[in-house]
Specification:
three-stranded antiparallel sheet, mainly alpha, 8 helices, about 10% strand, about 190 residues
Length: about 190
């Protein structure tokens, strides 16, 4: 997960809610945005890891950031400098933020999902994602958590087995190239 991008995505959504939103709703919106992006392009917007929890699917890294227990302390510090929790709400502590990590497509998907669910509260979002017609990849973990593989989401949005194999290969190559470019950048620093 790219911490700078997840911060920018979160800010992009929070700004639509006067910089304050129930964090369960935020997580559900971003899960649906990732799902839509996977359907359209085969790529996630957040590059997070997904799990089925009792209240539906979640973005694991985002949830850890919100709870202040993300494994990368530098990433957690970056997050904490921009967002704070107030009970079950996430609040932006800044009113401006660069948005350079978000593509035009990212913004379109985020806007589309938000427009569809803007007026709904977190309990509606939970019920929506529990509905097998809307989110067949979610499985009831009965108090535990179950990983949701990207392949399951792709199948749920109508991708064929061949398309899924191709997408997963492409995504693996992309991730390897990103790591290589990051290592090259570090060697020049």
């Amino acid at each position: 997960m790219d911490i700078e991008k997840i911060v920018q995505i979160t800010f992009f959504i929070l700004k639509k809610y006067n910089y304050r939103l129930n964090y369960t709703k935020l997580i559900k919106l971003l899960y649906l945005a990732d799902r839509e992006s996977l359907k359209e392009t085969g790529m996630s917007i957040t590059n997070d890891i997904y799990f089925s929890l009792d209240n539906g699917p979640v973005l694991s890294g985002l949830l850890d950031l919100i709870h202040g227990c993300y494994t990368d302390k530098n990433a957690q510090n970056l997050w904490n400098a921009r967002f704070a929790r107030d009970s079950f709400d996430l609040i932006s502590v800044v009113d401006r933020m660069p948005q350079g990590k978000l593509s035009e497509f990212d913004r379109e998907v985020l806007n589309k999902v938000d427009e569809q669910f803007h007026e709904n509260d977190y309990s509606y979002m939970i019920n929506y994602l529990h509905n097998k017609k809307n989110c067949p990849e979610w499985k009831n973990p009965c108090g535990s958590r179950i990983p949701i593989k990207t392949e399951e989401i792709l199948a749920s949005v109508g991708k064929s087995k061949e398309e899924i194999e191709f997408i997963m290969q492409e995504n693996t190559i992309y991730e390897q190239e990103e790591k290589l470019f990051a290592a090259l950048g570090d060697s020049f620093a």
